[in-house]
Amino acid sequence: MKVLILTDVQNDFLSGGALGVKGGEEILPVILRLIPRFPHVLATQDWHPHNHCSFGNPWPIHCVQDTWGADFSPKLDRTKFAAIFHKGSDPNVESYSIFFDAKGQPATGIHEYLQTRKWRDLYFAGLTTDYCVFYSVLDALKLGYRVTVIQDACRAIGDAKKALAHMKEKGAQLVRNLL
Ligand SMILES: [Zn+2]
């Protein structure tokens, strides 16, 4: 079953946000066209307490729980999401991956959710190509999922090419213009 995973499409990662990604908005129209094409859409949120360990080093304060910055882009309709998963809620642990945190513990419960439903065909979109999408994709591959990265529905903070090449080398399929 094909599942679209929208990774951290949150105000703080878009322009005007605390950690705005260059060109982040460009993925929104692509994502809006993708959503109706998938039988299942899941979304994740970076969801930090006010004293999260990443604040100040290496990131500015961002995606604080229940604030505007942590909310989804207003262009997204959350009623289209079958489920929403939060990561980075522990003040002492960073979690780029939606599957495992930096200590190797389950980050969100998404793996169990997918396993229960036998959904194995994951399509990744969102922010950012070189952090949360990247680490989530590598973990998904390790867990045995079939993984596709929708390149034009992702943007990077740093080096997108390098991140994409690495994900491909590990077994992810890269696509663009999926529609
Ligand atoms: Zn974060």
List the helices and strands and how they pair.
Elements: E1 2-7, H1 27-34, E2 40-46, E3 83-87, H2 110-117, E4 121-127, H3 132-142, E5 146-155, H4 160-169, E6 173-175
Parallel strand pairs: 1-2, 1-4, 2-3, 4-5, 5-6
The chain binds zinc ion.
Zinc ion is lined by residues 46, 48, 54, 62-63, 88.
Mind explaining what this structure looks like?
The structure is a single chain. It contains four helices and six strands. With 179 residues, it is of the alpha/beta class. It has a six-stranded parallel sheet. The longest helix has 11 residues, at 132-142. Bound molecules: zinc ion (ZN).
Task: Give a quick rundown of the structure.
The chain is an alpha/beta fold. The chain is 21% helix and 21% strand. It has a single domain, classed as Isochorismatase-like (Rossmann fold, 3-Layer(aba) Sandwich).
List the main descriptive attributes of the protein structure presented here.
single chain, 179 residues, alpha/beta, Rossmann fold, six-stranded parallel sheet, 4 helices, 21% strand, binds zinc ion
Across the major sheet, the strand order is: 3-2-1-4-5-6
Global morphology: globular
CATH homology superfamily name: Isochorismatase-like
Query: In total, how many domains does the architecture comprise?
Result: 1
The helix/strand class is alpha/beta
Mean pLDDT across residues: 97
The unique ligands bound to this protein are: zinc ion
CATH topology: Rossmann fold
